[in-house]
Amino acid sequence: MAEAPHMDPDEFRRHGHAMVDWIADYWSTVAQRPITSQDPPGAVAARLPLAAPERGEEFPAILADLDKVVVPGLTHWQHPNFYGYFPANISGPSVLADLLSSGLGVQGMLWATSPACTEVETVMMDWLAGLLDLPERFRSTGTGGGVIQDSASSATLVATLAALHRASGGQWRASGVQRRYRAYTSTQGHSSIEKAARIAGLGADGVRPVEVDPEAFGMRPDALRAAIEADLAAGDVPAIVVATIGTTSTTAIDPLPEIGAICAEYGIWLHVDAAYAGAAAVCPELRWTHAGLEYADSYCFDPHKWLLTGFDCDAFWVADRAGLVEALTVMPEYLRNAATGSGAVIDYRDWQVSLGRRFRALKLWFVLRWYGAEGLRAHIRSGVALADRLAGLVRADDRFELVAPHPFSLVCFRLRAGDEQSTELLERVNATGRAYLTHTRVDGRYTLRMAIGAPQTTEAHVRRTWELISDTATVLVGPEGRHS
Predict the structure, then answer these.
(1) What pLDDT is recorded for position 1?
(2) For residue 133, is it left (φ>0), alpha (ψ between -120 and 50) or beta?
(3) Angle at 31 between CA 64 and CA 93, to 5 degrees
(4) How does DSSP assign 30-47, residue by residue?
(5) Of 346, 424, 335, which Cα lies nearest the Cα of 116?
(6) Helix, strand or coil, per DSSP, at residue 273
(7) Distance (Å, rounded) from C-alpha 365 to C-alpha 370?
(8) 30, 81, 135, 278, 425 from 437: Cα distances, Å
């Protein structure tokens, strides 16, 4: 029987250097590439063989096929003119840490399975809590603590499960959903909130959408109170409120002080989703967006969006780690060990849905040490400043209107001429391959979203993108806004 052709350390060293060179070359040239793929559906699959090779192939051949098979089908998220969705930042330190994590190949499900994996993560979450100036109740030195989830969607699910456990007085864990429990979020809340409710057994109808302020688009506290009281009158159990700092459509900020006071009054779990905008709190001048966070039972943000850390890395904190562990822990015999039994260690398997977990804290450790607080603040401030300049350009052109406040680095705008023209504007701009924006609807009207935050994006990139948008608008509606 033939032996498996394992890559030995010398081969790994040689091919690893080639792979790092490839990535560095990609970063150096990404700005010269069309942002979106020109391939039709199925083109990438058609370039792949129908079956796996019988014999192993040489690494140079595999590497060469990246350019032939993969790159033509990519959307280049690290392009300086990629402004869609939210930033999905990467950086050199983060990529190198991911390589190290993969090379170590440790399993961090228990403290005992790799103590460093657990303890570095605990300290990194405390470092982050300090950088964002989060309430003391979220630190591991108190009753709470932090853990890395794969995404804010998973953080919302875990928070929902812990909230159900608490709202049921502990009965949910053994008996499941026995009553009608309710989750509340604004009409601008993320789709993951509904998904979490469905997975948790509440159903989509278990989510109560709460009306928002018509100008700032934050949740209305009076509407939240009315929804809670109506459910209580019907015999339902309010379990969790999900408030948002930086909604997906417009980066609206829910009024946490008022919402938190309502949750405290009724004994409802408050989860705060700051997936995109939480990173802004590294800057003291932007921490006003987190006022009222002391009411929260849990909070999360994604370093993999705006804090130069590669996907996946969601930072999730709870004020009461004992309640979270009680809700999620399962202890089969094969996981029992002396360290866990002593109660002196953290087993992060009890803080998430899955059992297994990677050494993701290495990414945070490398990024925080390479950039330091000053470097991270400079990155955030650059995005906010560029968004301010873009908003000024929009305001100066009477053909356009700003749609919402822009406290962070997302600017939402549209053509006054209407939805049809705004839709065509976005399609034409994206079709050039020189810039990429996405859209949403605000008050039912089609709205363009331009999210700034890629590490390579400069004022020149933003200015040229606006020139492209303006020139395209001239073709569509003329220099003064008349449809042509």
Answers:
(1) 59
(2) left
(3) 75
(4) GGGS-SS--PPTTHHHHT
(5) 346
(6) strand
(7) 8
(8) 17, 9, 35, 22, 10
Residue 82, token pair as written in the block: 């990629």
Instruction: Return the structure tokens found at 333.
Output: 């015999």
CB atoms within 10 A of CB 381: 16
The answer to whether 464 and 475 have CB atoms below 8 angstroms apart is no
β partners of residue 241: 184, 270
CB-CB contact of 451 with 404 (8 Å): no
Coil, helix or strand at residue 272: strand
Q: Where are the alpha helices (DSSP H) in 267-418?
A: 303-306, 321-328, 338-342, 361-395
pLDDT, one tens digit per residue, over 44-53 is 999 999 999 9
| Coil, helix or strand at residue 323 | helix
Contacts 24+ apart (CB under 8 A), 134-139: 134/281, 134/290, 134/293, 134/299, 134/317, 135/293, 135/294, 135/296, 135/319, 137/294, 137/319, 138/299, 138/317, 138/318, 138/319
CA neighbor of 77 nearest in space, from 454, 466, 461, 468: 454
The token pair that represents 288 in the structure block = 């006003």
Quote the tokens at residue 57.
């192939």
- As a whole number of angstroms, the distance between CA 300 and CA 395 comes to 33
Coil, strand, or helix at residue 185?
A: strand
Give the tens place of pLDDT for each residue, 18-43. 999 999 999 999 999 999 998 999 99
**Which residue is associated with the tokens 């060990």?**
337
Give me the pLDDT at residue 197, please.
87
